[in-house]
Write a structure and sequence with these properties.
The complex is a heterodimer of chains A (about 190) and B (about 600). Chain A has about 190 residues and is mainly alpha-helical. Chain A starts with 6 loop residues before the first helix and ends with a helix. With about 600 residues, chain B is mainly α. Chain B has a domain of about 150 residues. In chain B, about 60% of the residues lie in helices and about 0% in strands. The longest helix of chain B has about 35 residues. Chain B is globular, with a radius of gyration of 24 Å. The chains are: A mainly alpha (about 190), B mainly alpha (about 600). Chains A and B meet through helix 1 and helix 4 of A and helix 6, helix 7 and helix 8 of B.
């Protein structure tokens, strides 16, 4: 990646590369948690184990749709920004944050529902379910913080085609959390 | 980032405490690591006392440390001692010294950068490590004592079933935090090496020290998160009552699995041993060349060999679990992969020997310690083969043979590598030289006692001595080993004594040592291109690199009247800076910006 682009281009890729490495680290964290889920699961004759309360699938589907949409919106805004669309990016950023908050709200509803159904932490499936979703939600909170960090600059239209290292870094993190959620959704609710 | 950007003088807090200068952060890591090394070393002395004199009060400090038992180390305290010894040495001595200190100090200077690419993240990395050490050292003093599950923290020893106290929980938190610190450092190191190399410095123009530190950073970034995940799950088991690692916890709800922890731990744990030794390999590969006044033999192959070991280290972890009932097919696969890893390791080991062969060797202290690494790593590497093979491992598992093996390969080799590097870079660090005579006594005393201690352990393990027994004298089949235990203990205490020569040397030289010349070792890597003390921003002008790091006794440059040529020297016949930059595709670096 040692391209001979403009100085600004160099800076952008340096920051971005750091974020790529960090996301690889986070990826290994979630991969290790999911591996634990798989290794515990393959040892059980039935999964979820007998007597496990049902999971609210509808909420989870809605959740997934919301988070996917947030990624699509952010990605659209980022592309616009690359071509000078500062207005569009600002709108997209606000929508992404709103959708992230909706995701967290739905996630809270999901936990209330599983708790009401009697899925506890001492239950092996329940324990894994809560560790995975809590770890992810904690990172979503961090991701929302990062998105909010972009707001002042975006409001003043500071970010543009030549100045969007932060935007690229935060977007990468957000898309990563989206991918992690989709894998979790498939692992917990689908297969 | 130009040098002008740094003209404002930071205050005391900005300069010494919350510093973002990689050189100051390196010093902070050095002090943290030296404290860890001292505490971990004294713990080892206590353990050795107990092994040779079970049931006898520890002289001098016994009544102060263990007042309830009249100065005798009680069994639970002994378990805590070996646990904390291992944990502190790995995470709070080798990690801060070789990765935190050398990584921070050497990488920017040796690649010709003004600082790390993310200075703020660098500062956070140190302070996260400091917070982790508060948890780790504090855990010893809480009710029910510190962690006592072995450094591996296998459940059920490490869950509330085995250790209900707060100390173990604090240990879990401390490991999570020090892991976070390592990852922050790794993000910085990896990015810095890729983006901030001086113009003209291709990957194969980097010193091998930088190669070692860079590969370590890659392993840190990818595998430390796995133990972080294990610590999260263990924390949940201990605090929130989950059952991930409890076998047979509930028939109806399904059960947890203690072996799951071992998988997670060793997926991290095997790369970890290479994380610890790769910086030392890198340092030694460079120093052997510098002090033999010869180019590093097979430089590129050494770099690629270390890379091959790095890649393979990710797929051999199962050899730690041969005795867990692993499927024989998996076991054999792991055995073969483990054996394969010795091939690249042997190749660069032979490169080391080729490098010193017929060299004009200068027996300065850094060279002595480097040769020490070659010796102990050779011994440790060979004994590793017995543990890689399933049939012998099943017998040797959890014996002192394992203890001897890993202390030679990753403990003794890493610390000797650290000392080699410290004696070598001390002039750059402080502007003063360490005393050579004290250094040579330190080396001679250390290498002899290390050999006796750890080779003795190999023999005892071969004889069947288990690694975690409190009092061997109660087992008839081990009683005849008592004289050897005595010899090992005496050697270990002597090893501890010889470190005093280093302590005296270190403090005396730091404040009142002989002033160092600009290039005391006559070596041409980039850290010697800048003045002493190193200015903020490191280099007045970032040098352009024209050649590799090991240009010694090249007959083409005989007319210069010296046996070395610096990486930054443009000599007749070299391309112009522009041509060099064009041919290596490494332009002047740009710092990170938003």
């Amino acid at each position: 990646m040692t391209s001979n682009g403009s100085p600004a281009g160099e800076d952008r890729w340096t920051s971005y590369l750091g974020m790529v490495v960090a996301v690889a680290s986070w990826g290994m964290l979630f991969a290790a948690l999911l591996l634990s889920y798989v290794l515990l699961r393959v040892q059980q004759p039935v999964w979820p184990p007998l007597g496990s309360p049902p999971l609210p699938l509808g909420l989870a589907v809605a959740n997934t749709a919301v988070l996917l949409l947030s990624s699509v919106v952010l990605s659209w805004g980022g592309r616009k920004l690359g071509r000078g669309g500062r207005e569009e990016f600002h709108v997209a950023l606000q929508w992404t944050i709103a959708l992230g908050i909706v995701f967290l709200g739905l996630q809270l509803r999901l936990w209330q529902a599983t708790h009401a159904n009697g899925l506890g932490l001492t239950h092996i499936f329940g324990g894994m379910f809560y560790v995975l979703t809590w770890a992810h939600a904690a990172h979503i909170v961090a991701g929302l913080g990062a998105l909010l960090w972009l707001v002042p600059g975006s409001r003043q239209r500071t970010y543009g085609p030549e100045r969007r290292a932060r935007v690229m870094m935060v977007s990468l993190f957000w898309h990563f959390l989206d991918v992690v959620w989709v894998v979790m959704f498939v692992a917990i609710f689908v297969v | 980032m130009s040098a002008d950007a740094h003209h404002h003088e930071p205050g005391f807090v900005g300069k010494y405490i919350f510093s973002m200068d990689h050189k100051m952060i390196a010093k902070q890591f050095l002090w943290l690591g030296l404290v860890g090394l001292a505490v971990g070393g004294l713990m080892a002395m206590l353990m050795r006392w107990n092994l040779a004199n079970p049931g006898e009060a520890v002289p001098l400090v016994g009544n102060m440390l263990f007042p309830d038992s009249g100065g005798v180390i009680p069994p639970d305290a002994y378990a805590s001692l070996f646990t904390m010894h291992g944990t502190i040495m790995i995470f709070f001595a080798i990690t801060p010294l070789l990765i935190g200190c050398f990584g921070n100090f050497c990488i920017p200077l040796m690649i010709g950068a003004r600082d790390m690419v993310f200075p703020l993240l660098n500062m956070l990395s140190f302070w996260t490590a400091a917070l982790a050490s508060v948890f780790m050292f504090g855990s010893i003093f809480v009710p029910l004592g510190g962690a006592a599950s072995g450094w591996t923290a296998y459940p059920t020893l490490s869950t509330n079933v085995g250790l209900p106290g707060l100390g173990m929980t604090m240990w879990v938190v401390a490991i999570f935090l020090i892991g976070t610190s390592s990852i922050m450092g790794a993000v910085n190191y990896i990015t810095t090496v890729i983006r901030l190399r001086a113009p003209g410095m291709g990957y194969f123009d980097m010193p091998l020290t930088v190669w070692g530190l860079w590969l370590t950073a890659i392993l840190n970034a990818l595998f430390v998160p796995v133990i972080a995940a294990a610590m999260v799950l263990l924390f949940f088991d201990r605090v929130f009552g989950t059952q991930f690692f409890a076998a047979g916890s509930a028939v109806v709800d399904g059960t947890g699995d203690p072996i799951l922890y071992q998988h997670l731990f060793w997926i991290f744990g095997h790369p970890e041993v290479y994380i610890l030794i790769l910086p030392a390999w890198g340092v030694v590969s460079d120093l052997l060349s510098f002090f033999s006044r010869k180019p590093a033999y097979g430089y590129k192959i050494t770099a690629l060999g270390m890379t091959a070991v790095t890649v393979l280290s990710a797929v051999v972890y199962g050899h730690h679990m041969f005795s867990t009932g692993l499927s024989p097919l998996l076991g054999q696969s792991f055995m073969v992969l483990t054996m394969i890893i010795s091939v690249p390791a042997e190749i660069f080991f032979l490169n080391w020997l080729h490098t010193i062969w017929k060299g004009r060797i200068r027996m300065a202290t850094p060279m002595l310690f480097s040769l020490g690494v070659v010796f102990v790593f050779g011994l440790g590497g060979l004994t590793g083969l017995y543990l890689a093979s399933i049939s012998t491992d099943l017998y040797l598992h959890d014996t002192y043979f394992v203890v001897g093996h890993f202390h030679l390969t990753m403990a003794a080799a890493a610390f000797l590598g650290f000392f080699a590097g410290l004696y070598y870079w001390f002039p750059k660090f402080t502007g003063r030289m360490l005393n050579e005579n004290l250094g040579k006594i330190h080396f001679a005393g250390s290498i002899i006692t290390i050999t006796i201690v750890f080779c003795g352990m190999l023999l005892q393990g071969w004889a069947g001595m288990h690694r975690r027994i409190y009092d061997h004298s109660v087992y008839t089949y081990l009683q005849h080993l008592a004289p050897m235990t005595n010899i090992i203990t005496h050697s270990a205490l002597t090893l501890g004594f010889f470190q005093l020569f280093f302590v005296v040397n270190f403090f005396r030289s730091w404040f009142a040592g002989e002033k160092a010349p600009e290039n005391p070792w006559q070596v041409g890597t980039l850290e010697w291109a800048t003045s002493n003390p190193i200015p903020h921003g490191n280099f007045e002008h970032i040098p352009v690199v024209f050649r590799g790091p090991h240009e010694f006794n090249n007959p083409d440059y005989a007319h210069l009247g010296r046996d070395w040529v610096a990486q930054w020297e443009q000599l007749p016949g070299d391309p112009s800076p522009e041509e060099r930059i064009a041919s290596t595709h490494v332009p002047a670096p740009q710092a990170a910006h938003s």
